[in-house]
């Protein structure tokens, strides 16, 4: 077995990205949210029996996998609870304005931990945090002049 230092280097160069896999109740609604609303692009899919069952969507350097529950796999608890996916961005305020332009309901951006943050919830209750670095003081809320 290679020394710990060599294994650590191998692991770091081997792991390329994390791709959250989200089980969804209605893949068409999820695609409207992610593709039409947030401008993700569907780059891969699995069609079984003429029905879309799974897909891979991308936005910039981020990706998600979505798969629709079958009638016998829907969990009994509240879906999405306790799950938060954080997207590191260059300009969260642009994401915020784009989401509003696509009739989504993003949370008003605020500064937390040195980052602008806006939050959306997808149709299955998954919390999506979009964040970008800033020098603006903590707890500042974004104000849009009318």
What does this structure look like?
- By secondary structure, this protein is an alpha/beta fold.
- It has three helices and eight strands.
- The strands form two sheets. It has a four-stranded mixed β-sheet with strand order 1-4-3-2, covered by helices on one side. Strands 5-8-7-6 form a four-stranded mixed β-sheet, with helices on one face.
- Strand 3 and strand 4 form a beta hairpin.
Question: Over all CA atoms, what is the radius of gyration?
Answer: 18 Å
Q: What is the beta-strand fraction?
A: 25-35%
Residue share in helix: 10-25%
Secondary-structure element pattern, one letter each: HEHEEEEHEEE
Can you tell me the CATH superfamily of the domain at 19-69 and 83-133?
2,3-Dihydroxybiphenyl 1,2-Dioxygenase, domain 1
Strands of the widest sheet, in order across it, are: 1-4-3-2
> Strand pairing plus helix content: what structural class?
alpha/beta
CATH topology call of the domain at 19-69 and 83-133? 2,3-Dihydroxybiphenyl 1,2-Dioxygenase, domain 1
Distance between the termini: 64 Å
How many strands appear in the DSSP assignment?
Answer: 8
* Coarse shape: globular
Largest sheet: 4 strands, mixed
Query: Counting H and I runs of at least 4 residues, what is the number of helices?
Result: 3
């Amino acid at each position: 077995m290679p020394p710990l230092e060599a294994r650590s280097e191998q692991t770091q160069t081997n792991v390329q990205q994390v791709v959250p896999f989200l089980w969804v109740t209605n893949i068409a609604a999820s695609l409207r949210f992610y593709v039409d609303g947030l401008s993700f692009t569907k780059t891969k899919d699995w069609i079984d029996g003429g029905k879309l069952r799974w897909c891979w969507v991308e936005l910039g350097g981020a990706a998600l996998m979505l798969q629709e529950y079958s009638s016998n796999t829907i969990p009994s608890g509240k879906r999405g609870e306790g799950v938060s996916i954080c997207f590191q961005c260059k300009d969260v305020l642009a994401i915020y304005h784009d989401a509003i332009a696509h009739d989504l309901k993003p949370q008003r951006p605020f500064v937390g931990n040195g980052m602008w943050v806006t939050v959306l919830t997808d149709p299955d209750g998954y919390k999506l945090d979009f964040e970008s670095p800033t020098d603006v003081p903590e707890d500042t809320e974004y104000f849009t002049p009318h």
